[in-house]
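Much of our argument rests on the idea that a fold can be written as discrete symbols. This step matters because it turns folding into a mapping between discrete strings. The record that follows shows the chain in one-letter code together with its fold in token form.
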Amino acid sequence: MGCGNDLRPVVKYLEKLYFIAYSFFHLKILITKKMSDLKMQMLWRWTKAVMLLPFNVLVIIPAIVLYGTDYRWQGYNIYGLTFGVILFGAGLFLAIWTMWLFAKMGQGTAAPWDPPQKLVVAGPYRHVRNPMISSVLMILLAESLYLQSEYVFLLFILFWIGNMIYFPFFEEKDLEKRFGEDYRRYRRNVPRWIPRLSTWHSGEEH
């Protein structure tokens, strides 16, 4: 296709992501050598969940899309780069925060096959019901801005639409079944996508 040179920034970008992911998990393994078996098990559960879900959505699939659409690097756009970096940083921070809450308070992961055992209503979850998906959307949008790719932006739109369908028809029904009235009260008071400005407390009811 004659676009080898044009894909070099994409390759470098993916190499950085792989390096960050490798460094993060390598560091976690070193730190957890003295942890209990339970914590090691949780780390392994999260490793599988991250590699199979957000890593595919944020790295593997965009790379396939770029390769399949004959992507050509167009150079940096200062506005897209600036906004993309801000979005990426905010999304990464939110992702780490919500994963930590799921592991510590929920005793589970973001994976449908290994969900939290307890309803997590803390931190960003007091403002919006799906901050973890919001973090993935923020990072995916940041990638589309950084790469200036309309196809990655289309992937962002499709991922958003897919979750808008999945959550009300599947995820929320499962949560209601598992957590009953606690989740129904939470759902009545905390929005699905657009965060409420005030912090919701479990005893509060509109």
